[in-house]
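Troubleshooting: if your tokenizer reports a length mismatch, compare against these two reference records.
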Amino acid sequence: MQKTLLFGLIACSLLWPQLGATQDVELPKHIIPSSAVAAVFAQPKALLHSEAMELAPREVITVMGLQQFGFDPCEITNAMLLVDSFSDLRNPPGFALVITFGKPQQPGEPLTAMFNKENLDGKTIYRIAPQVPAILQYDASTLVFGMEPFIQKMLSAKNAESPLIDLVNRDKGDSHLSAFMTMAPVRDTLNQMLPPANQFNPLNRLLELPNLIDSLSVHVDYSDQQQASLQITAVDESAGQQIEDIFDTSIKTGRQMLLATMAGELRDQNPAMQQAMEQYLERVGNYIEANIRPKRTGKVVLFEAKNGNGQLSSIAMMGTMMGMLLPAVQQAREAARRVESANLLRNMAIAVHNYHDAYGHFPTNIVDADGKPLLSWRVAILPFIEEMNLYDQFRLDEPWDSEHNIKLLPLMPTYYQSTMAPSDQKTVFLGFSGDGTPFGKPKTKFRDIQDGTSNTILAVEANADEAIEWSRPKDLSFDVNQDVTSVGKLRPNGFNAVFCDGSVRLLPGTINQKTLKNLIRMSDGNVVRLPDN
């Protein structure tokens, strides 16, 4: 828990969204090993004490750091995160986080009490196990957190040389946040891990990038002129041209895909809102496409954003607005679908009630002379959902998949169609078949439901993979000794269930299994009284 808090506090210091003035602090860059492929630099203290960070909870971070770790994260003057080369993305690569303070600093006892204090190349190291990051006291004011094998590489580096180190040394070091990566050491590994090319994927060309890129550099500066840049250096000028073309095409394609996806999300909105959202998204798409298109000089492709005209703020605001609007649209759409599903289930229950009024019992599967099921009870109630003409087309003495009856599957009534699992042949509106269920007893009568019709489930919307041909005499199998896993995954916040009294409730997907089983059985004596939705 303490290690998690430690890295959380350091990350909070490094990645706070508003950045301030820089401060020159010496970092031991000479310990970067030649095998490292990525490096990130930041200046937490300068950022946290800037005017832009006036409302940052520095006091809280300070107290938590001192109590848990024996040092103040707000006093970290500089930080360097290094990542080692890797041959398999499924196994985390070696890494180390180097943090430097403006004065001598040691990890405090609350943290080091968990570790064994030992010696490594004349330096103090705190370690627990090989798979747990160790803490190295590099010098009086520098601590290193990371995997010990990689730390040993750093101690042996001694001004090593590599393309990454060249990138770092060429940097002026005046950005608030900088990141560098070289592609050659991991190119083959990345290519092996990428999905296979798919000619139908409009963003397929992005898979070519690892073979075209030599290195990446990111810089962020939030002083007087806020700006951010991503510089991609290609392996040669021809590759630079290809990268520029790939990003140009991908930005346009991505925009079109976003608009198409949002159009689908907006289908259930009223026309005025739908038109307004589409106009806004079109305007946002035009703005983003115009402002993030890369510029190329030779083999260098540059993405750059400046805030002189409020560009960065505008993009951030658009992201915030989209983050607020999309969930609202999705929630409205989900609510509409849930209500539609509830209405369909309610109509199904009304049909069952009318069937009971006509025949004195609940509908049952249609069977032959030997009791073999031929057609579903959903066929039996067709006359009660205004589908008498369809009912008359069935041959009731033949099974659902006979040469004649199988042709009627595509004529499934809208009463059985779910917008969450669209199909013209299968339905997710199903009952439970098994001992103690309304459809598990031949010719169930209302008086058989001793737990009460408002406390007993008649039918539910099942998971999409449980959908059944609507005329097939089959429902969800129920066994009181087994968990009910056939519901709860169709929609994000639960599943609709219609009760024997015709009421519909949204039950949570995480409903207790004992409670659910008691609701499914009609006369087990364990009455569950649910609160109003």
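Reference record two:
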Amino acid sequence: MLELSLANRLLNFKDTKLAIPMVCPDVSGLEDQLADGTVFRLLALKDEHAVSGRDLAAEEARQIEVGLARDAMVRGQVAVPLTSRDMTNRLTELYRKARSDAAEGGTNTLFLAVGFLRWKRTDSDPRHYRAPLLLLPVKLERRSAQSEFRLSQLEDEVRINATLLEFLKRDFELRMPELEGELPRDESGLDIPRILQILRHKVRDVAGFEVLEDCALSTFSFAKYLMWKDLVDRTDNLRESRLVRHLVDSPTESFEGSTRAMPQPADIDRKHAPADLLAPLPVDSSQLAAVMAAAQQRDFVLIGPPGTGKSQTITNIIADQLGRGRTVLFVAEKAAALDVVHRRLERHGLGTAVLELHSNKADRKAVLTQLDRSWDRASGHSTADWVRVTDDLRVTRDQLNGYVAALHLPGTQGFSVYQAIGRVAKQPAGVLSLAFPTRIATISILGCGCAGSRRSWGNGIASSPIWARVARCCWLLLGNGHLAGRMRSLRQRPDCALHCTRRKRQGAGWRNCSDTLPPSSACRKLWPR
């Protein structure tokens, strides 16, 4: 997790398109002005043509540029040894990269590196490397795509390059306890001269080491170092968590409680009333089981592909935990996941219970504003409202569960409506084959009045030639709209259905019906002469 190779820009800083070098004769004054809220513009020195066309020594040209940079600071500008075009291109790349990092990771990665350590691996090593010393959080702003960039300090903690300190401790046995805690400060902010003096004193006896008072603007990321630092410094505190203690002490053994059965979706409605759960967003049974598992303080992993409602489930879990008076820490790799959950909580009136501690919402003013809003929040609803709503929900839930039970209940024909729908759905269009073992079952189905294809039923139902003929006649009979009111009586009297079938066929001109079943009294009422 701790990257101490030359691939780390915190140890081997290079001048790339995502880096802007600066000529700053007074790094301490620059830090003081940024801390006081000064907003700087950037000056491209190459466009000033101060040394072009003149035969000057390198040191003399350097002094002229330093003089221009000093005058620029007085005018609120920071000198950059680049052309205007090159500087603008690099600033645009940095601006986009910093915004992308803040949107995805929720943290600022744009820093002004103040002071550098020039170092090499061994005394005989011909190559030198540069590592930044102090990292000042800054931001780039512009009013439009055509306007110039402005540089200002971000309200965040100024950081020492802790990765460099750890590298010096491991590879060169150089310890700097004066810089590992609170950094030296003066009346204007950090005491930059004092910090650089401490570094010079520590590395003075190491061959090839030199402290430079240079500045550069670039992006740096040390999130993994902070994670490593927490694991090293707070191992005992982290062991108070059952999960962390298991991962640290016994990762090869089964986790405590892993054999306990998780809440099953089918048991939620049977074991729990709606008042036992607070799930403001739509939720299915598997998601509700996850909410209940969290309510029971179970340890589990929620897995699902994109679009299956993970963030929706997390929102319901957080809402339910808040309803139980618990505190929730929600951590995500990308800020977008945090924003989605927060927006949903806010949409359902729970935004004042959330304290956002990421990206630009983690500065002192934003945190105090959120705490003040949460302190003043009050609920306008009473316990009676909650009881009334949950009672109505319980009645509706029981009605829906009753409908589902009836849908899956097998009838006298031997299968349920759900199974019948599934069988029809699997058949090719216009082809359906059903066979019933008894006469009662056949008439019961024929008289139920369900919509379907007369051709499919007439061609497919065939337990005997007689019943196949009855089936065709019954569909002709039930196909007429004015017979809809007589469906129930036909379903209740199979003998009446047979007689009605015979009469209907004779009325339509088919005189060869061989049925001789006499009409019942109920049939005479349905079909008066």
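Descriptive notes for reference record two:
- Residues 28 and 98 are 25 Å apart (CA to CA).
- Residues 439-498, 500-505, 507-529 have pLDDT under 50 and may be disordered.
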